[in-house]
TrEMBL record:
<keyword id="KW-0092">Biotin</keyword>
<keyword id="KW-0275">Fatty acid biosynthesis</keyword>
<dbReference type="InterPro" id="IPR005479">
    <property type="entry name" value="CPAse_ATP-bd"/>
</dbReference>
<feature type="domain" description="Biotin carboxylation">
    <location>
        <begin position="6"/>
        <end position="450"/>
    </location>
</feature>
<dbReference type="GO" id="GO:0005524">
    <property type="term" value="F:ATP binding"/>
</dbReference>
<protein>
    <recommendedName>
        <fullName>Biotin carboxylase</fullName>
        <ecNumber>6.3.4.14</ecNumber>
    </recommendedName>
</protein>
<dbReference type="InterPro" id="IPR004549">
    <property type="entry name" value="Acetyl_CoA_COase_biotin_COase"/>
</dbReference>
<keyword id="KW-0276">Fatty acid metabolism</keyword>
<keyword id="KW-0443">Lipid metabolism</keyword>
<dbReference type="InterPro" id="IPR013815">
    <property type="entry name" value="ATP_grasp_subdomain_1"/>
</dbReference>
<dbReference type="GO" id="GO:2001295">
    <property type="term" value="P:malonyl-CoA biosynthetic process"/>
</dbReference>
<dbReference type="InterPro" id="IPR005481">
    <property type="entry name" value="BC-like_N"/>
</dbReference>
<feature type="domain" description="ATP-grasp">
    <location>
        <begin position="125"/>
        <end position="322"/>
    </location>
</feature>
<dbReference type="InterPro" id="IPR050856">
    <property type="entry name" value="Biotin_carboxylase_complex"/>
</dbReference>
<dbReference type="InterPro" id="IPR011054">
    <property type="entry name" value="Rudment_hybrid_motif"/>
</dbReference>
<dbReference type="InterPro" id="IPR005482">
    <property type="entry name" value="Biotin_COase_C"/>
</dbReference>
<dbReference type="InterPro" id="IPR011761">
    <property type="entry name" value="ATP-grasp"/>
</dbReference>
Length: 453
């Protein structure tokens, strides 16, 4: 039998804080790390830490970080036997995973088939239903047929409903429908948007939940059929579907129910032959969980899980890609204390406009229970070309209130001058009575921002 391709060098097909995070994990495992960069990222400080750094093209992501050919050429030139996609960019692109495999390299993530299934929300829903994972009420079929057929589907579910693109992502291609009179127009419009944005007009319908929380389960699986779930996270504080503060565990939810859902997620992974890290995203309302989607990659908010479980999720992803068995068993997973993550963006804290620029002063927080994941150093020029997230401040405490108190202290120590930062927004959210009690719904932050005008 052909041996699994072994590798001693990982190419990191990403940039910024997650590139540095992956680089650190490679070092932990005594692997060589190759970084790639676009012309906009030339001279970025984290590149100096890599064994090699290769320019893969101009600033536009389509010509660099999304350029499969350039990434494979960089892997070829540097002898990288594996590619870690990080999050965003090509991380959930099945064709990229296929191209890497075809080049004889290892994609650090699940199989292309698993990525494809989870990238199609109808296929994902079917896979979940067959594993007993609870889904949002509604058919696991594409929405087709006459206006009467569609009205009948909505009638069965009960208004309000949401029409969603099967191939959707990034919070786009969704439309809420509150009454029968809006239905046909909404279906047509969403179908057109789905075709335009995602190249696939397939849409489906499900119940719209009015005030859910966003609660997710982290999983990690190896290629030997082992799957464990590493607890839960609450990511309900969102603006325009973008998470702002995340925490682990989700406050105020029955732990026995979480354990039941976690076991179902791990079971679903075994059923579909999933390997690597992944996240099952749920809406949680009135004491019940409803699956919405699975992310087949490491997530921005993975550190809060690392803080409470003591597991290095990125190192574990790489170990799995090397063909090792998981280093943890389910019975070893213990969640201790509480962790929060504030996403620091180079943006105006009040009008949210991106405000990149050169970092003229930088002071990062520290002390017990504080971790900062960032690629910033003084003098670094935050480029305008990419996502505005420049740092993640993570706190851990024995209790949720200790984690909050430590985060408050960390934000007071954090000084970033040059680019704008949303630090002041985070500081005010940590004083919000709703957040302090815990368990707010996904509309809470937008409501707060509206009240403030
Ligand atoms: P995407 O892949 O675009 O992120 P998701 O399916 O994860 O799409 O949904 C994104 C967001 O849309 C959710 O976090 C939630 O805020 C909202 N949403 C999706 N489905 C529903 C639903 N059935 N009821 C209420 N809100 C929903």
């Amino acid at each position: 039998m052909k041996q699994e391709t072994p590798f001693d060098t990982v190419l990191i097909a990403n940039r910024g804080e997650i590139a540095l995070r992956i680089l650190r994990a490679c070092r932990q495992l005594s692997l060589k790390a190759v970084c790639v960069y676009s012309e906009a990222d030339r001279g970025a400080p984290y590149l100096e830490l890599a064994d090699e750094a290769v320019c893969i093209g101009p600033a536009a992501a389509s010509a660099s970080y999304l350029n499969t050919d350039a990434l494979l050429m960089a892997a070829e030139a540097t002898g990288a036997g594996a590619i870690h996609p990080g999050y965003g960019f090509l991380s959930e692109n099945a064709a990229f995973a296929d191209a890497i495999a075809a080049s004889g390299r290892v994609f650090i993530g699940p199989s292309a088939d698993c990525i494809r299934t989870m990238g199609d929300k109808i296929a994902a829903k079917r896979a979940m239903i067959s594993s007993g994972v609870p889904c949002v009420p509604g058919p696991d079929d594409a929405l087709i047929g006459s206006a009467d057929d569609i009205a009948a589907v909505a009638g069965d579910i009960g208004f309000p409903v949401i029409i969603k693109a099967a191939g959707g992502g990034g919070g786009r291609g969704m439309r809420i429908v509150r009454s029968a009179s809006e239905l046909v127009g909404a279906v047509e419009l969403t179908r057109k948007e789905a075709a335009r944005f995602f190249g696939d007009p397939t849409i489906y319908m499900e119940k719209f939940l009015d005030r859910p929380r966003h609660v997710e389960i982290q999983v990690i699986c190896d290629k030997h059929g082992n799957a464990v779930w590493l607890g839960d996270r609450d990511c309900s504080l969102q603006r325009r579907h973008q998470k702002v503060i995340e925490e682990a565990p989700a406050p105020g939810i029955d732990r026995a129910l979480i354990a039941q859902i976690g076991e179902l997620c791990a079971g679903a992974c075994r059923n579909i032959g999933y390997s690597g890290a992944g996240t099952f995203e749920f809406l949680y309302e009135d004491g019940a969980f409803y699956f919405i989607e699975m992310n087949t990659r490491v997530q921005v908010e993975h550190p809060v899980t690392e803080m409470v479980t003591g597991t290095d999720i990125v190192a574990e992803q790489i170990r799995v890609a090397l063909g090792h068995e998981l280093s943890i068993r389910q019975e070893d997973v213990v969640c201790e204390g509480h962790s929060l993550e504030c996403r620091i963006n180079a943006e105006d804290p009040f009008n949210f406009q991106p405000r990149p620029g050169r970092v003229t002063r930088l002071a990062l927080p520290g002390g017990p229970g504080i971790r900062v994941d960032t690629h910033l150093v003084q003098g670094y020029e935050v480029p305008a070309s990419y996502d505005s997230m420049i740092a993640k401040v993570i706190s851990h405490g024995r209790t949720r209130s200790e984690a909050i108190e430590r985060m408050r202290g960390a934000l007071r120590q954090l000084k970033i001058e040059g680019p704008a930062s949303n630090g002041p927004l985070h500081a005010s959210l940590l004083e919000d009575p709703g957040f302090i009690v815990g368990g707010v719904d996904i509309h809470h932050l937008e409501r707060l921002l509206k009240e403030r005008g």
